[in-house]
Amino acid sequence: MLIYMLATAMTIVMLIATAFGLHQEAGRVRVKVNTKRLDGFAHRNVYRRH
User: Fold this and answer.
1) Alpha carbon of 46 to those of 4, 11, 13, 16, 32: distances in Å?
2) String of b and e for 3-36 (b: at least 16 CB within 10 Å)?
3) Which residues, in sequence order, are CB contacts of 31 under 8 Å at separation 6+?
4) Is 1 helix (H, G, I), strand (E, B) or coil?
5) Closest to 34 in 3D by CA, of 44, 24, 23, 45
6) What span, in angstroms and rounded, lies between the C-alpha atoms of 36 and 29?
């Protein structure tokens, strides 16, 4: 019984970690898309890393 509870807990933790990782990756992609749009309008893009 204990092994099933541990497996269930690990599954839930991994699902939460996956959702958190996807949320962060979506944020990074959103920032990249926004900076590409600004390139045509601004002389200097302050978000771009050199």
Assistant:
1) 51, 41, 37, 33, 12
2) eeeeeeeeeeeeeeeeeeeeeeeeeeeeeeeeee
3) 47
4) coil
5) 45
6) 11
4-49: per-residue pLDDT in tens? 999 999 999 999 999 999 999 888 887 777 666 555 555 555 666 6
Residue 18 · residue 30 · CB < 8 Å = no
Q: Answer yes or no: are the C-beta atoms of 34 and 46 closer than 8 Å.
A: no
Sign of CA dihedral 25, 29, 30, 32: positive
pTM to 2 decimal places: 0.57
What's the CA gap between 16 and 10, in Å, rounded?
Answer: 10
